[in-house]
């Protein structure tokens, strides 16, 4: 029931944003929908903590990370669950790629074929570590322990993404997922 309420809240919130503001500004988002959202300016939103009046407060901020193919997107609860991400994650990090349970969910068809926003984020985070996400997913399917060892030793040992293959993987994820209403 709580999930339905949250989804309903997101639906109403997105209608309100589209009707009244006509744009998503990260700093205006509540902290519980900040992570994995994309602003109207195509920049990723990220959750940060700050001290205010001696108390730790969550704040949604606009990062400098630009998303090429999406704008005005608040990630769905279905994708958050399918991909195993946490809306309360602070900042953006590749650390979760070291966790076999997370990588298993990220590479599963429920996430990789239906959640292009999350796939794009972790594709780029993996590339920043010198790892090609489709290769990591394949290694995860074949031998989960070895894939983590390869990821951990990837600083130069693993080949970086090949642009054409990267485009095909990202295009597959984008083509497989229905476009959210607020992208149109």
UniProtKB/TrEMBL annotation:
N-terminal signal peptide: 1-22
Keyword field: Signal
Domain of life where this protein originates: Eukaryota
Stored Pfam families: PAR1
Coiled-coil regions listed: none
Protein name: Seed coat BURP domain protein 1
Source organism per UniProt: Hibiscus syriacus
């Amino acid at each position: 029931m709580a999930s339905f309420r949250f989804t309903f809240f997101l639906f109403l919130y997105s209608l309100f944003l589209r009707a009244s503001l006509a744009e998503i500004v990260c700093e205006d988002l509540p902290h519980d929908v900040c992570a994995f959202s994309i602003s109207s300016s195509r920049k990723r939103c990220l959750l940060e903590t700050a001290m205010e009046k001696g108390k730790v407060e969550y704040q949604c901020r606009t990062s400098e990370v630009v998303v090429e193919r999406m704008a005005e997107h608040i990630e769905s609860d279905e994708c958050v669950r399918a991909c195993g991400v946490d809306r309360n994650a602070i900042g953006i990090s590749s650390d979760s790629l070291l966790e076999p349970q997370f990588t298993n969910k990220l590479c599963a068809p429920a996430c990789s074929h239906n959640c292009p926003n999350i796939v794009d984020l972790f594709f780029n985070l993996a590339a920043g570590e010198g790892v090609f996400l489709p290769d990591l997913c394949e290694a995860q399917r074949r031998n989960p322990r070895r894939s983590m060892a390869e990821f951990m030793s990837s600083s130069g040992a693993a080949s970086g993404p090949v642009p054409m293959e990267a485009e095909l993987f990202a295009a597959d994820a984008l083509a497989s997922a229905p476009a959210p209403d607020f992208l149109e």
